Amino acid sequence: MDNLKFVCSWKGKIPQAKLSITITGIYLEGCLFNGQQLSDCHHDSPVVSLVPAFTAAWIPKDSPSPYREDEVIFLPVYFTSDREQIVTCIQLPCGENHEHWVQTGAALFLKNS
After folding, report:
1. Are strands 86-93 and 72-80 parallel, antiparallel or unpaired?
2. Number of folded domains in the chain?
3. How confident is the model at residue 97 (pLDDT cuts 50, 70, 90)?
4. Hey, CA dihedral for 37, 95, 20, 86, is it positive or negative?
5. Averaged pLDDT, 66-71
6. What is the CATH number of the domain that holds 55?
7. Domain span at 21
8. Nearest to 107 by CA among 87, 97, 95
9. Which of 10, 46, 60, 99 has its CA 20 to 30 A from that of 38?
């Protein structure tokens, strides 16, 4: 495990992965995500939205990630929207303005309570 890193991709397969999984049913609060990049919520946007299905895998640390480091943000994944129990963090493509997404309080949830 010391030689591996956890990566996520909305582009499909992760070529460096020997084994990958498709994850569905993750909720997002604080912004919107279309599978390509984050965007601001609008006045009529839902408070919580489902994230499109994505591929996740452990790959060697020296392998290239699906996205450049400067185009992703690591968002926390909580068990519920109460944000009491953090499970992990995953990377989402966000464009260039990382600080903006931190300020929105964007977070992911396994269960919408």
Report:
1. antiparallel
2. 1
3. confident
4. negative
5. 90
6. 3.10.490.20
7. 4-111
8. 87
9. 60
Looking from the CA of 87 toward its CB, the CA atoms found within 13 Å total: 13
Give me the pLDDT at residue 11, please: 92
Does the predicted TM-score (pTM) go above 0.90? no
How far apart are the C-alpha atoms of 1 and 75, rounded to whole Å? 21
User: What's the Cα-to-Cα distance from 49 to each of 28, 45, 53, 77, rounded to whole Å?
Assistant: 5, 9, 12, 14
Give me the DSSP letters along 13-34: --TT-SSEEEE---EEESSEE-
φ and ψ at residue 103, rounded to 5 degrees:
-70, -25
Would strands 72-80 and 107-111 be described as parallel, antiparallel, or unpaired?
parallel
Alpha helices in the chain (DSSP H): 98-103
Q: Return the structure tokens found at 62.
A: 């020296």
Q: Which amino acid belongs to residue 51?
A: V
Tokens of 46: 């839902």
